[in-house]
């Protein structure tokens, strides 16, 4: 009997262990999604750090090559290297070509090279004028000059000489040696893995709310990303750091929209795809400076039409009348006007000295401000104003003028606060949102709470609660990203925008035309200031203005405008074979060097 008891006891224990093991296995299956989310949050951090930090470091380490395009030989035997395509000539220390002769005006004229290598001189109405090969040069008219031509500027005789073949080849070799471009393949693979894991996590987090459009959207973005890089590589272009940042931020944007409105993800993907197409088309146009300048008046007209349409047909949303309904689509024309504002605000060297050009742009800026005031779009008006200040300073270098403009704007701002109660209310709650947490401070207090609950690594895409608060995917997107993706990734997104701004600023010294450098600085000013208003506004460090985070916030028009503005940054990239917005002439078509 004891033996039978032992046998049956062993069998019973074995069966019991089977049930216990089965129960444990079932529990493990149930907890599988939780384990996946717990692990993938750290993978997201590692991938984001790898993608963004290596791209940011590559952009900040890149050198802007300086080249000599010609020499201006003075009668005293001095040779002045001409290192830009557009050069201010005069006695002032700020001139690119400085001639220390009291008979030469501080800003005497301009010496400009075109895409074909032809030079021209324009007198700026100087006191003693200019004489070219014995003939007086008319003021404010470009006069072609050739190698060996004699220029009499004030009392100094100058002769233009081209660089030698040896020095030209040295320029090419120096450009190749100075250019260090990051190979895109590892970054593309990392972004693709990031996108796949995001889809898996969203499928787990959203459950029955998950939409098949999310999968299609991320697959589509990956296809667009790879197709773009492969196509440009076939055109002998190598620099994709700027685009990689934009593609990564756009991936986060798709995830943000999928979290808040799963069915709207595909619409956001279409906006990204259209943005990439717009980016490519704008870069193609910006390749030709003459064509770009010629399109200014078309840009003026387009902007005016869009603003008028906005004022006539727009509907009010979130306090501002800046949304136009076309079928089932809601558009913000003021976002597209940003592109026109930068396009017409940038100026070539010759235009910088034309008073009429500056007056036309100032009048256009005032028109934009008045329209935005009529639409009650306070946030966009502030962005336009700051961009106007940057463009005005880059065009004139006059601090006194800027102080006057800021003073007038300050008075205007006080009047707005006096007569626009909704703006005054936003300022009234600023810094005191916790005292009115369930009313005027509702959005900011929830944003700060959600961001704090996310910690460094976040709760996982789709698992946050801020998505249930109004404007979570637009005005409060920094809080949503902080909650679901973690503070590390949120800070990396901000650093990416700052990097683009630094890159644009560094292009000033190497830019071949003031047009490209002014446009790039203006575009990144919009990026940077929008980011500041979006981030600091959502956490109550600044008033909440309702502006978007470039590339990250949900919204088709905002995404389209972000990619369009990025084209101005790309056009200022003068690294060897880095930008298709710059022709391959004099660029070392063999494509050697430059990859890291």
Automatic annotation (TrEMBL):
Superkingdom classification of source: Bacteria
PROSITE patterns in the cross-refs: FHA_DOMAIN (PS50006)
GO BP annotations, alphabetical order: cell division; regulation of cell shape
Record's keyword annotation contains Nucleotide-binding: no
SMART domains, per database record: FHA
Pfam families, sorted: FHA, FTSW_RODA_SPOVE
Subcellular location, record wording: Membrane
Record-annotated membrane-spanning stretches: 7-28, 34-53, 185-204, 210-230, 242-260, 266-285, 297-316, 360-393, 399-417, 448-465, 485-503, 515-536, 548-569
Bilayer topology annotation: Multi-pass membrane protein
Gene3D superfamilies in the record: 2.60.200.20
Molecular function terms, GO-annotated: lipid-linked peptidoglycan transporter activity
CDD domains: FHA
Domain FHA positions: 87-137
GO cellular component, as recorded: cell division site; plasma membrane
UniProt keyword list: Cell cycle, Cell division, Cell shape, Membrane, Transmembrane, Transmembrane helix
Name of the protein: Cell division protein FtsW, lipid II flippase
Species assigned in the record: Eubacterium pyruvativorans
């Amino acid at each position: 009997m004891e033996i039978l008891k032992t046998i049956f006891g062993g069998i019973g224990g074995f069966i019991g262990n089977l049930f216990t093991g089965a129960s444990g296995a079932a529990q493990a299956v149930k907890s599988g999604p939780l384990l996946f989310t717990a692990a993938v949050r750290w993978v997201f951090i590692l991938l984001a750090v790898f993608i963004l930090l290596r791209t940011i470091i590559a952009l900040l380490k890149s050198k802007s090559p300086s080249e000599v395009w010609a020499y201006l030989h003075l009668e005293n035997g001095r040779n002045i290297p001409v290192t830009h395509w557009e050069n201010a000539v005069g006695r002032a220390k700020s001139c690119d070509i400085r001639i220390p002769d009291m008979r030469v005006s501080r800003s005497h004229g301009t010496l400009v090279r075109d895409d074909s290598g032809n030079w021209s001189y324009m007198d700026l109405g100087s006191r003693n004028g200019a004489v070219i090969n014995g003939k007086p040069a008319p003021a404010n008219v470009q006069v072609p000059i050739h190698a060996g031509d004699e220029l009499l500027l004030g009392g100094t005789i100058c002769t233009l000489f081209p660089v030698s073949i040896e020095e030209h080849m040295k320029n090419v070799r120096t450009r190749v040696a100075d250019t260090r471009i990051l190979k895109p393949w590892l970054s593309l693979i990392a972004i693709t893995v990031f996108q796949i894991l995001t889809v898996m996590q969203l499928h787990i987090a959203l459950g029955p709310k998950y939409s098949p459009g999310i999968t299609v959207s991320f697959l589509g973005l990956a296809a667009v990303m790879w197709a773009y890089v492969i196509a440009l590589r076939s055109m002998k272009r190598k620099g994709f750091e700027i685009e990689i940042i934009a593609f990564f931020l756009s991936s986060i944007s798709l995830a943000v929209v999928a979290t808040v409105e799963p069915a709207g993800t595909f619409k956001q993907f279409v906006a990204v795809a259209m943005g990439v197409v717009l980016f490519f088309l704008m870069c193609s146009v910006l390749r030709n400076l003459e064509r770009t300048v010629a399109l200014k008046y078309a840009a003026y007209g387009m902007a005016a039409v869009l603003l008028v349409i906005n004022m006539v047909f727009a509907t009010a949303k979130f306090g501002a009348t800046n949304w136009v309904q076309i079928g089932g689509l809601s558009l913000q024309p003021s976002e597209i006007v940003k592109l026109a504002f930068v396009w017409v605000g940038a100026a070539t060297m010759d235009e910088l000295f034309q008073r009429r050009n500056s007056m036309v742009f100032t009048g256009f800026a005032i028109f934009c401000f008045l329209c935005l005031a009529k639409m009650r779009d306070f946030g966009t008006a502030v962005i336009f104003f700051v961009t106007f200040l940057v463009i005005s300073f880059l065009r004139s270098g006059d601090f006194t003028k800027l102080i006057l403009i800021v003073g007038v704007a300050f008075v205007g701002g006080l009047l707005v606060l006096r007569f626009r109660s909704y703006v005054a209310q936003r300022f009234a709650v600023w810094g005191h949102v916790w005292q009115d947490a369930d009313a005027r401070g509702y959005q900011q207090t929830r944003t700060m709470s959600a961001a704090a609950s996310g910690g460094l690594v976040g709760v996982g895409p789709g698992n946050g609660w801020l998505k249930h608060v109004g404007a979570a995917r637009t005005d409060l997107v920094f809080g949503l990203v902080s909650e679901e993706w973690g503070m590390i990734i949120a800070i990396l997104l901000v650093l990416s925008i700052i990097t683009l701004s630094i890159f644009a600023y560094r292009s000033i010294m190497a830019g071949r035309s003031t047009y490209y450098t002014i446009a790039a600085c203006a575009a990144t000013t919009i990026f940077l200031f929008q980011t500041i208003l979006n981030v600091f506004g959502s956490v109550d460090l600044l008033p909440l203005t309702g502006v978007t985070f470039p590339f990250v916030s949900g919204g088709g028009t905002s995404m389209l405008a972000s990619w369009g503005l990025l084209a101005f940054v790309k056009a200022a990239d003068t690294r060897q074979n880095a930008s298709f917005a710059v022709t391959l002439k004099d660029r070392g078509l063999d494509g050697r060097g430059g990859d890291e």
